[in-house]
Amino acid sequence: MKNPELHFDGVDLEELAKYSPEKITADIMVDLMAELHAWRNVVNWRTSETPEELEAYISDLEELSSQCNNKKHTNFDDYKLFFDDCVSTLEDIGGRCPCAEPYDNALKNYVLECITAGAEKLEAELTK
Fold first, then answer.
1. 45-68: per-residue pLDDT in tens?
2. Do residues 28 and 6 make contact, with C-beta atoms less than 8 angstroms apart?
3. Any alpha helices (H) in 43-104, and if so which ranges?
């Protein structure tokens, strides 16, 4: 939870408060309170909890975020085949696909444009 921009000369502010409290200015306190407020807003935290509990909560969130979110731990080979087929078809239609990666926004936008164009063409043919 420590923000190096708020710590001057790389000093841990907790240590500074403990051993040299006279060096903590009102500006530093305001910055720290704003940081604490922001962290509590991010995690929807209650103000009655301790800094240690907040730090543990954030650490737990970080650990959970790196875990698999697929509860059944199924095999995604069928999705990969579908993705590869879609990319291959798009390449056949329009040449090389931009950054053919599953989470690439350029590819997503290209796919959506193709779907929209195809839907418009289909609608035009159906209304003839």
1. 665 677 787 778 778 877 776 666
2. yes
3. 51-65, 77-94
